[in-house]
Design brief:
The protein is α/β, with parallel strands linked by helices. Helix content is about 40%, strand content about 20%. Its cofactor is Zn(2+).
């Protein structure tokens, strides 16, 4: 048996011991308070970044590039895994979670600037990001280096995903849509693992957001107000 799997099973046994009674209220149905759309990155611990240990509280989705759309014969639509809790469990908060140093954003940047390609399955995902990031790549300041460009595009990508949710007829107006960036590279502050709010309902101006949401003003920040 693979040693890593053996270790995972042992940790799962500890999890089962700790969580044995925490499923009593959600065994038959779920009504999560939020749906989060995170990047599929081993450094982004989807529940742990919120300190969540409550089953049924957060409906977690992940894919490379924290995308909210999927491609169908009818065109690009809100992905079913994101839409499900909104449409069927009464969830009224959607949080798009980007992260510093995102590999999917980096790969998209390289594809748009240098024509770099990847395996077909990855290319399919990047093809959903390219049209949303292309204008952002063109608008990047000339005086930022590669890392700075990537992290600005992380924000830009979060904005575009928030926009896609807000513009979809499948997402009711009553659903709050928020965009955040998870930072483990000391980009926004020296508190690694902290989440920074960059977009609330399409509003991206930092001062406006701080005025509108004083209770979390210290957590609102952006690298790029384009």
């Amino acid at each position: 048996m693979n040693d890593t799997l053996t270790d995972l099973l042992q940790r799962n046994a500890e999890h089962a011991d700790a969580f044995e009674n925490r499923f009593d209220d959600v065994q038959d149905a779920q009504h999560p308070d939020a749906v989060t759309v995170c990047c599929s990155d081993s450094r982004v611990l989807q529940d742990h970044i919120w300190g969540n240990e409550k089953p049924g509280h957060i409906f977690t989705c992940s894919n490379i590039g924290n995308r909210v759309v999927q491609r169908t014969d009818a065109g690009d639509v809100v992905s079913g895994d994101v839409l499900y809790p909104i449409a069927h469990t009464g969830t009224e908060l959607a949080v798009v979670v980007g992260h510093t140093g995102c590999g999917a954003v980096t790969a998209t940047y390289d594809a748009l600037t240098d024509g770099v390609s990847d395996a077909p399955g990855i290319e399919h995902c990047l093809d959903l990001l390219k049209p949303r990031l292309e204008a952002g790549v063109e608008a990047l300041p000339d005086d930022v280096g590669r890392a700075g460009a990537i992290n600005r595009l992380v924000e830009y990508n979060v904005d575009r995903q928030v926009e896609a949710l807000r513009e979809s007829d499948d997402v009711p107006d009553a659903v709050d849509v928020v965009g955040v960036v998870y930072d483990f590279q000391d980009v926004y502050s020296d508190r690694r693992g902290e989440v920074h709010v960059v977009n609330v309902g399409g509003e991206t101006d930092v001062e406006t957001l701080r005025e509108q949401h004083p209770e979390v003003a210290s957590r609102i920040d952006r690298l790029w107000e384009y």
